[in-house]
Amino acid sequence: MSVLSKPYFHCEEAAFAHLEAALWPQGPVCPHCGSMGKHYDLRKTRLGLRKCAEKACRKQFTVKVGTVFESAHIPLAKMLQATYLMCSSKKGVSSHQIHRLLGITYKSAWFLTHRIREAMRDGSLAPMGGGGGIVEIDETFIGNDRTKKPKGEKKGRGYAHKHKVLSLVDRDTGQKRSMVVDDLSAKTLLPILKENIAKEARVMTDEAGQYGKLSATFTGGHGFTRHGQGEYVDLVDRTIHTNTIEGAFSVFKRGMKGVYQHCGKQHLHRYLAEFDFRYNNRVKLGCGDTERTERAMRGIVGKRLTYRGSRVAA
Hints:
Blueprint: H1 12-23, E1 39-41, E2 50-52, E3 60-61, H2 76-88, H3 95-102, H4 106-120, E4 134-142, E5 163-170, E6 175-181, H5 186-196, E7 202-206, E8 222-225, H6 243-260, H7 265-280, H8 289-298, H9 307-310
Parallel strand pairs: 4-7, 7-8
Antiparallel strand pairs: 1-2, 2-3, 4-5, 5-6
Helix pairs in contact: 2-8, 3-4, 4-7, 6-7
């Protein structure tokens, strides 16, 4: 039986019950005051509605309050379908496809997909490469020849006008972390690397000049390959390569070019979060489509994205 035939993808009552079980495993929690188990059941008035019994609160709530789904006018069952589709599609699914599949407007589908991407952002700050682990570092460029350039600059096929993305992959844990950067100078990248990578880590890069002084920063050492000379794995030490992160970039590039086709810089951080989330919760790490979707749903709590806010840089 298809996963998408499950009741909570089609019935609103089942959808609310499923989300409540995921977010409230020990019973309803008031999102306004945090009290547990003290509420009035108003579900006969409106599906999923409850009222806090604390005298200092007395506010009404549903499981969607305090999450990225708050105030959404799309049926919850359809939002759960969209979450599953985005989590199970290796290279993403476009807002136009969501609009056609779920029978909602393109504007609603666009906003919904951004809500789900916001839920996928984990905000992890733990340093990578702890205990002397290996961390691969590389950068890539996103955009095409139609990407807007500064006024007066000649058009061409260079990469200076494209969006710059820096990514890190912890080879031991299989976790990936990506961020948009303004430029790729050592002055810009080094503080970011120090903040995200443990000092004892062993780092791997290509021969780019901005990585030239990493051995003085990370005590585990700095290995690099000379891609310009056709070297992708060191012939003496086979652990020196950036093939892991190159493979992750290949999926990201195919998704951005083949599925999403264009992305403004103000939204790129959420697309990076989407691809990082799927990479960090992939089958190789023991996480299937259903479990990946459950993890994304647990990530909706404590986040809010308004339509106006999703139109500008976050």
